[in-house]
Amino acid sequence: MRTTQAEVSAECIDLALGHPSLELLPRELLRKAAAGRLRGADRSYLQYGYEQGDSRFRLLLAGFLSRSYGPRAGGAAEVSPEELFVSGGASQALDLICSLFTRPGDLVLVEEPSYFLALRIFADHGLRVEGLATDRRGLLPEALGQSLRRGRPAMLYTVPTHHNPAGTTLPADRRQQILELCREHGVLLVADEVYHLLSFAGRPPAPLAASAGQGGVLSLGSFSKILAPGLRLGWIQGAPPLLRRLAACGFLDSGGGLAPFTSALVGGLLERGALDAHLRKLRAVYGSRARALAAGLSSLPGASAELPAGGFFFWARLPGIADTEELLPAARAAGVTFAPGRRFSVSGGQRERLRLSFSYYDERRIGEGLERLGEAIRGFRPPGKES
Q: What is the mean pLDDT of residues 208-235?
């Protein structure tokens, strides 16, 4: 089975890949940051770290997020360092939240479809998962309300901006309705907002992180999408009482804070404003690649998809194919692959869908990949049917 970390084949164009291409990884920026940090007299970043994360780094990250997110709900303009907890990336953060805020057998609500590797984490913790209905604007608040009236889940997990896989962005009015429903029913809202800063077509509504200081919300952020996945560095934004619960866990009591050395390097980039410039480059590149994928997708037999305003993914529909998983062998034979829809479904649905990523390849390779996919679709015969 292919994993997230698998090597990329030179022969096959893998449109399932949800990570940046090598030329977008800012090696020179990080080299300069490392050299600057290692030249200094301070060695504290080589020690066990403070459980919530290095205070200097959290101050710099708070400033960066305040600039990037803009004015917060209720008129507050600043993100506080006390609302930030340093994590080893969004997946590690979600795993830690499950460890401390759920028990095996608890119910977790997610969108249908949902990020398939989050579903893996929930399975590792023995959690039951219920998928909630969505439309082209994201999660339906009425579906959430109906589920909450039936019982109280441990948490709602949502990807509100540039959804993985659906590419949708939840509008402001729905965000508010969902916040109010979760607070009314005492349900922890976990917002996976790792794509929020990768908007290339307009500005999305304020992140759910903007309401984190009021309690009941934990927002996940990650440098994997906006800098480099190999850093394994991210953050959780939430009210201080929730973060104190995270910081007091035995895992951190034993091992200390997460990624103090990496935090020191990235802190140097934040201090110089280098990440802001890098983000501007990423938005331009991903916007161009998304338009290339949209243009190529229009030539596929029967395919349709909404053009996302940011993130990494298209959520395409192939209505002539009952199960896109069955198309994979033909696609691989043509030299292309993708992520079939049912991997993102709690109930085994979404079979006529596939997720296509534009983050890894340039415009030429994206176009070539879609040509190969079109060839596979035109020659496809479902298993059991005569050619």
A: 95
Q: How far apart are CA 248 and CA 254, in angstroms?
A: 10
Above 80 in pLDDT, residue 4?
Answer: no
Q: Is 171 exposed, middle or buried (0-12, 13-18, 19+ CB in 10 A)?
A: middle
CB 200 within 8 A of CB 189: no
Q: Which two tokens stand for residue 160?
A: 């509100």
| C-alpha–C-alpha distance, residues 179 and 283, integer Å | 28
Contact 141, 175 (CB under 8 A): no
Distance in angstroms (rounded) separating the CA atoms of residues 373 and 354: 12
Q: Which fold has domain 39-274?
A: Aspartate Aminotransferase; domain 2 (3.40.640)
Q: How far apart are CA 292 and CA 361, in angstroms?
A: 10
Which of the 8 DSSP states describes residue 188? E
- What the block records as the tokens of 63 is 């400033």
Q: Please indicate, yes or no, whether the overall pTM of this predicted structure exceeds 0.85.
A: yes
Q: What angle do CA 119, 124, 126 make, to 5 degrees?
A: 95
Could you read off the pLDDT of 246-286 as tens digits, one per residue? Answer: 999 998 888 888 999 999 999 999 999 999 999 999 999 99
Give the Cα-Cα-Cα angle 81, 85, 88 (nearest 5 degrees). Answer: 140
Average pLDDT over the chain, rounded to an integer: 93
Q: What does the longest C-alpha to C-alpha distance in the chain come to?
A: 73
What is the model's pLDDT at position 98? Answer: 98
Is the backbone peptide bond immediately before 104 cis, with ω within 30 degrees of 0? no
Hey, what CATH topology would domain 13-25+276-379 get? Aspartate Aminotransferase, domain 1 (3.90.1150)
The DSSP string of 9-22 is PSSSEETT--S--G
CA gap 334, 331 in Å, rounded? 5
39-274 has the same fold as 13-25+276-379: no
Strand arrangement of the beta sheet that strand 234-238 belongs to: 84-87, 234-238, 217-222, 188-192, 155-158, 107-111, 128-132
| 8-20: average pLDDT | 90
Strand 107-111 and strand 128-132: the pairing is: parallel
Q: Where are the domains of the chain?
A: 13-25+276-379, 39-274
Task: Compare 97 and 48 and report the one with higher pLDDT.
Answer: 97
Helices (H), 40-115: 55-69, 90-101
